[in-house]
Amino acid sequence: MSETRSNLLRSTPFRLALTFAFLFLLAFILSGAIVYQLMSASLARQLDQSIKETYSLIAATYAESDEEDLVSTVRDHAQFSQDKDEIFSLTDKDGNRLAGDFTSSLPDGFSMFAADLPGVPPDTEYRAYSGMVGDNNLTVAFSLSETEDLERIVLMSFGWGTLFITVLAIGGGAVLASRVQRRLDGIASTMVDVSHGRLDARIPLIGNGDDIDAVSAQVNAALERLSALVDGMREVSANIAHDLKTPLNRLQMILESAADKTVSGEDVSTELTDARAESQQINSTFDALLRIAQIEAGARKARFVDLDVGPVVETIGDVYADVAEDDGKSLSTTIIPDTKWYIHGDRDLLMQMLANLVENALRHCPPGTAIELSVTRGGSHVLVHVRDNGPGIPAEEREKVFRRLYRLDASRTTPGSGLGLSLVKAVADLHGAAITLEDRNPGLGVTISLPAVRTTVT
Fold first, then answer.
1. What pLDDT score was predicted for residue 410?
2. What angle do CA 349, 353, 356 make, to 5 degrees?
3. What is the pLDDT of residues 379-425, one digit of tens each?
């Protein structure tokens, strides 16, 4: 329990909660002090106004050379104020009391004094106004006790409010901080699990869409990609070991045969030629793997420029049209005239990507297959299509063909390393493009959706 409390006190959310609670409390105290000062000034003005109105009302009863009505009025007001909240004094020019509760010796105008009267608590503060009415001095004084009681109530209410807000702020801050801390602990626990090799661990989401949920979702997405990459690396390692074992065994058998023939003095030129072919195939596989790794690392992005896809597609169509014809197939290229399809990318990599797609169609389609190469517009993207009417790819295999060294069962007897479509996927990802495989019944349609920079018609 003490350790949990200690961790909470050290946690950033709790410290932030305390900081905001302190700032809120400080703002509350400052605003309360301002309100109290304004209220006190307002009460003082109202009290002075009441005193002055009462003084004027009494003074209005005086008629020249006739002070009986004045004396009677002061006496009546003094009698009506039994609790002595209001006291009065009327003295003649010699200072003799004519009526009232006390004998005033206060200066003209407003003043403060402490009265000592029967039935009144000692040192009771009064606010008084004095002035001459004829030859007489009239003083009207109101007690400050009501104003002081009201100010005392406000101060007590403000004090209790401050205490309540303080407790609420600290308690609420602790509750909120503990909730945030639990979520942060969940993130930390997930990261610990991942560091220990549990790549399937994910940060729990509460689904309220706040910033912690957003960050957690991004971390979970990163963990998904990490898990997929690790699984891919494991699969690649297994595929490399499996797919390279056969050519390495063949190379070893060829070399052993050459060694045996060398001992018996026979010609080994055929074996050496076969060995060179096998070693070149192995080197080509590793070169392709390294090229894919370099592309995925983004090293080629420094060479990106704004370029027109149209000439790239035309070049590929021109290069492979004769190759397709020699192989008993046809390759047609369709581009809208006088239109430029600008994207941001690497020309050489795009040519390699399209070449791989066309070669893949040529290699795996039978004679008589028609292959189409075209460029169209799709919203804010440039769409490059490579379509054929060959055997196609089964739906359950379409996601797998982009894996390194993966080959369909029907393709294992054809030349190749199983890296052509992996390179296509790496180039597409580098350009932020999406690859779509569709069944054309018969045949396969491959669409590369590249983000467009602009499209112009000349």
1. 43
2. 135
3. 888 999 999 988 878 777 767 777 666 555 444 444 555 566 777 88
Q: What is the pLDDT of residue 409?
A: 45
Q: One-letter amino acid identity for 165?
A: I
Residue 9's pLDDT is 62
Q: Any residues with CB less than 8 A from the CB of 60 and at least 6 apart, and which?
A: none
Cα 128 vs. chain centroid, distance in angstroms?
65
Contact at 8 Å (CB) between 170 and 21? yes
* Class of the CATH-defined domain 226-296: mainly alpha
* Fold (topology level) of 302-457: Heat Shock Protein 90 (3.30.565)
Domain residue extents for the chain? 226-296, 302-457
List own/partner pairs for 287-292 with CB under 8 A and 24 or more apart. Answer: 288/417, 288/419, 288/422, 288/423, 289/236, 289/240, 289/404, 289/419, 291/423, 292/404, 292/419, 292/422, 292/423, 292/426
| DSSP-derived secondary structure letter, 69 | H
Which H or E element spans position 366? none
Q: Of 158-167, 286-295, 297-306, which range is least confident?
A: 286-295
pLDDT interval class at 458 (50, 70, 90): very low
Whole-model pTM: value is: 0.47
Are 402 and 409 in contact by the 8 Å Cβ rule? The answer is no
d(CA 321, CA 329): 9
Please say whether the beta carbons of 108 and 130 come within 8 A. Answer: yes
Least trusted range by pLDDT, from 113-122, 190-199, 343-352: 113-122
DSSP category for residue 411: G
Pull the structure tokens for residue 14. 């709790």
Question: What is the arithmetic mean of pLDDT over 248-276?
Answer: 82
Alpha-carbon torsion angle 413, 416, 419, 420, nearest 10: -110
